[in-house]
Amino acid sequence: MTSDPVERLALAHREFGEYGGVNPSIEVSTTFTVLEAKTLPDIFTGQRGPDPKQGACYLYGRSWSPTVHTLGRQLAALEDTEAAYAVSSGMAAVSSAILALCNSGDHVMCSNCVYGGTYAFMKSYLPQKCGISTTMVDISDLKAVEAAFSSNTKVVYTEVLSNPTLVIADLPSLAQLAHQHGASLVVDNTFTPLAVTPCHWGADVVVHSMTKFMSGSSDIIAGAVCGRASLIQQMMDLHTGPVMLQGPTMDPRIASELLLRLPHLHLRMAEHSRRAQAMADMLAELGAKVLYPGLPGHKQHDVLTRLLNPGYGYGGLIGIDMGTAVKAEALMERLQNRHGFGLMAVSLGYADTLMSLSAASTSSEMDQADLEAAEISTGYVRMSVGITGSLPQRLAQLQEAYTFVTNWNGMPPYRATKVRRQANGMMMEVLSWPSSGPQEDAGPQEPDSEADNILLPEAAEIVAAACAASQALLCKTKGPLGAHEGAIRPASSQTTSNTLICTDTAASSHASASRLRPSPGLEDCLERPVKYRRLDDETHVVYTPLGTFG
What we know:
Elements: H1 5-11, H2 39-44, H3 66-79, E1 83-87, H4 90-101, E2 107-111, H5 116-130, E3 133-137, H6 142-148, E4 153-159, H7 171-180, E5 184-188, E6 205-209, E7 223-227, H8 229-235, H9 242-246, H10 252-261, H11 265-285, E8 290-291, H12 301-307, E9 317-321, H13 325-339, E10 342-344, E11 353-357, H14 368-373, E12 380-384, H15 391-407, E13 414-421, E14 427-435, H16 448-451, H17 459-470, E15 474-479, E16 482-490, E17 499-502, H18 505-508, E18 514-515, E19 531-534, E20 539-545
Parallel strand pairs: 2-3, 2-4, 4-5, 5-6, 10-11
Antiparallel strand pairs: 1-7, 6-7, 8-9, 9-12, 11-12, 13-14, 13-20, 15-16, 16-17, 17-18, 19-20
């Protein structure tokens, strides 16, 4: 059998449609008939089953489905395992594999830096609900791994690349240690499909969240377990099988969708990796604290290099530690809202770049001590690099945003808010981002006076819409009654002037209206005037000084 996963997929059994279609048919039935009455008891006792050698007999959609079974054969070819089966989510794959391998009283050793849902399942769910003890360990420290084994350790669990800090597991060494102690090595290969084949390095079971790169479109929730045929059969056991009894069943329609996407997975993975490498190289040259296993400076660069299948790169995930959450948020907002570089969202493997602040999102199940042990800082941005736009375009956008945030130390002078008039006449916020002011958006021949224009009749309404929409633009005032905060709004809903008042009742009792500025009694609350730019008759960008609003 070839070592190339794409070649294995091409050589795998091809399932055609019922009427000769080039794609497999979608079997949506939940129950299946037999021709002879004695066949049903044989299915229940395991003498008959979906394998052609067992008569290709199906019983009920919760256990085996023809379309899902077809997907399983493709996944087994991809991971070069004896068998595989698809389930309804990545967490269903993780939990089903562990519960098939362990019983109450057993012990699991798990990497201390894994996806937050996996972390919660291992650290809390298994001990509290199943009586299975767990130890979280730095998986890159083989001495710590060796010391964590006990007489009842049944599983060592790791991700090829840890989520989110991209620590690389030394799979051959971990497999050797696990097998020496009579344990199974279970590996999550979600981040590196095709790029790494864990079973070639001693893994016993491979799990995937197919929601990510395998799907590629962020429109499917799915998972997979790949391993020995006996394990897959155990998961379907009528008495103790976690898939059969807990029911994380994949819809056959979803299985069909994924079957159509696997053939071009290698093209997508190669491009995700190519772009991630280019971005990581550029960020490193800028002096950023960037994590990417394709960089020679990565601690385990050589480890992953040995594990890789040629042609798929080092993966599509990079990490950028901005130092603080303020800087990280500014970077993501400027990238998304000013440049359209990507999207602030969890998950990964989508066509567009996805960015998230790990400590506050996908790793939020971890307490502060665990976050520190896993080296997940509050300013760590996980970036799943997409494949939309041109690479030069995306590199320029990333360079500009990173340079902007670092130059201003995460505290630029303005907040830009784009507002647009709706059909009902109301103004609403469209996008908002940290800004240095109107000059950064000026056209090449646009005079500065136009950029700073704040005297149009609808200015008050526009600024008020920006303030009200974001709910973060506050007027900080001082008056006879002390300091106050309140949102700026028009003097009335029907206003056509530039008049604004402060909604804080104590402060506004001392305020009189004036153009786009608080009254003379509140003038000390502004260090810079509010400015705005007219993009067209319906759309404006408001630049609110962050020395005053923020």
